[in-house]
Amino acid sequence: MRNRKKFYQLFLYALAVCSFVLLGAGFTMAVDALIRPSKSNITGQLAVQTDAPPATDSMLLGLGDSLTRGIGDSNGQGYFGLVKQKLHAKHNRLSAINLSVSGQTSTQLAEQVKKTRTKRLIQQARWVVMTIGGNDLFRSTDRLQQLNPKQIEQARIRYERNLRAILSDVKDANPHTTVFLFGLYNPFGDVNIQGANEHVLKWNESITQIAQSFNGVVVIPTFDLFQLSPGQYLYRDHFHPNGDGYQRMADRLLQIISDQPGEGKNSQ
């Protein structure tokens, strides 16, 4: 009887340990999937969202990286979801499709916009919203704590070439769509990484200059939104915005959209 009781206690202890290990492993996998989504997940998202867009009077199309995907927002909305909600209140037949991919670089986006399905959606889009460039910039250097100016400059030149190609393909597919391109911000403003602000500002100059060479491409600045108090508006990974940060981005974008004919406060 005593041996049976001891065996039962050991069994419960082993079961508890296994449960804890499995829970920890599941959490680790969830975080890893959030930061580095698998190719199969990405493919599945794109297939669902691009096969059969519903009949619509207006379409909002999202392109780019994890910022348009909304990573860091505990509500899963991101700026794209917040803008979609606001526009849907005015446009009953609004369609919103988000083709952004976490971790995407400008090289990958340049390839994506050439795909037949993506082009088909661009042709239907009234608005195209886009975040791209953060991964190009901050992955271009060996160490974030000590930025390599030569590597960053080489990446900027490559980014400029890709951005021109992206915007050219989008406008060729739909000359009438308005493209809203978010600028870059420095997520490490309170860490004091030497030269980070200067590099981000230089990349933003490139974004502005390239955008100005296209009709209907509007740059939405974000540098100032996170400049003075980055910790208040960034997710705990210290890279992506949190819910409040995305709200600031959405508010700024909606303010610009409202300047378009037929989109003002007094328009119905």
TrEMBL record:
InterPro entries documented for this protein: Ester_Hydrolysis_Enzymes (IPR051532), SGNH_hydro (IPR013830), SGNH_hydro_sf (IPR036514)
Origin superkingdom: Bacteria
Gene3D superfamilies reported in the protein's UniProt record: SGNH hydrolase
Recorded GO MF terms: phosphatidylcholine lysophospholipase activity
Position of the signal peptide: none
Start and end residues of each SGNH hydrolase-type esterase domain: 63-248
Pfam short name (any one): Lipase_GDSL_2
PANTHER family assigned: SPORE GERMINATION LIPASE LIPC, THIOESTERASE 1/PROTEASE 1/LYSOPHOSPHOLIPASE L1
This protein's name: Lysophospholipase L1
